[in-house]
Amino acid sequence: MTCSAAQSRWDRRTLTLLTTPEQAEAAQIELQAILDRHHQSLVSLIQLENGSYELTISITYEAAGRNLLNRRRSATSKIRFTIEDPLLANWRSSLKNTLTAWARQILTNSSQSITFPELEPNNCEESPS
Question: What is the residue-wise DSSP string for 99-117?
């Protein structure tokens, strides 16, 4: 995935540690290659494709209390959701922008808070069992 020209163009102020324009340009190219490589590896960890999903979680636990009988209890919860291509594309783009902002902070030695994007699926329904 490639960034648009506006996203991939670095502000010269972020590269003040480099003394010549050639060094700044080389650093920009190398940094973009690193971002592309890591972006693809992060995106590949999330194995979602477009479609409908249903997840079920079952938990068995021991209830605290005086009752020695029936101390074991269980709970089950289900969630259904839909993932669509535009949603995935938007999430991937947001992740790329976040990685770019993070890299800029490393170069400029700044420490602002960065929040990574969350994938919020469509048509999310929760149903406890």
Answer: HHHHHHHHHHT--------
